[in-house]
Amino acid sequence: MAAPFHAHQQGEALRRGPQRPARAFLGTGVDFVVGIGNEAVPAMASPAAAQAWLQQHLVPHLRAGARVTCVTVGNEVFKGNDTALQAAVLPAMESVHAALSALGLRDRVNVTTAHSLDIMGASFPPSAGAFRPAALPHLRPFLGFLSATRAPFLINCYPYFAYRDDPARVPLEYALLQPNAAGVADPHTGLRYDNMLYAQVDAVYAAIQALGHTDVEVVVSETGWPSRGDPDEPGATPENAGTYVRNLLRRVEAGQGTPRRPAAPVGVYVFELFNENLKPGPASERNYGLFYPDGTPVYNAGVHGYLPPMLAASNAAPQVAIRPLFSSASSGFV
Length: 334
Prior knowledge:
Layout: E1 6-10, H1 11-15, H2 21-24, E2 31-36, H3 47-57, H4 59-63, E3 67-75, H5 83-102, E4 110-116, E5 120-122, E6 130-131, H6 136-149, E7 153-156, H7 159-165, H8 172-175, E8 184-185, E9 192-193, H9 196-210, E10 218-223, H10 238-253, E11 267-270, H11 309-312, E12 326-327
Parallel strand pairs: 1-2, 2-3, 3-4, 4-7, 7-10, 10-11
Antiparallel strand pairs: 1-12, 5-6, 8-9, 11-12
Helix pairs in contact: 3-5, 5-6
Keywords: Glycosidase, Hydrolase, Signal
Protein name: glucan endo-1,3-beta-D-glucosidase
Region (Disordered): 1-20
């Protein structure tokens, strides 16, 4: 494979279970992202709390040889109306970054947070991408922090949602990243998009540039396609899920950039490694995994070349409640 494998792992899940997932991936080229849950974000503004969290959830894995590239502070905090949490994110990130510096890890581990695409007020055409006005007071200093620390802007993108909500108007081939999709053209730039994911990424780049930053990388921290859904969730099939992931892998392996940034390969993390059988909500929420909890594949995603022996064997996955993301990106994150 031309690109390395990466995994996104919540801190709690990273350390529990009879087989520790991070250690199972030692020597495989897998990078991990460790996440601080939303409920713990306000406390991280305390330098002592940030130091203690890193000592418990990060340092042991680094000492064991795990490749942890990023700590994410919260997830999709601007999606809801918790203004106190939203105001706490940047101070917490600054505190965690200072704690990493004190540990001598500042140049090894980035600090950021992941955003829902709902943070966008406009996303089409891509060149007109703009953040929601209500988020701007937080995003301006946040982008300044990312620029100063050279950390990525993480965005969770799901073309499936757009197709599910309006299958009559959103072409399935466009959402599935099919190379023969007719696509759409940006009327302002003339750039042509043959898939929705790259249009979404370029909309985020446009929104960031509109706030004065051209040096912040956008990384897709979650994307995927469900293999099963409820009757009112069209397109959620194993065939479509496999098509989406395989098409995504081909583009990433080829080092393909977006029309706006053709020379910059897109960093992408696929959601997710295992189905979450106990997750509430519609059926699709429990069926984004590449594998069942026992390690057998849900469909042929063409990913075995990325996996360590414990997963490539299909039936040897760790019996542990983990929420990883696998990727062909070279960046780390949530």
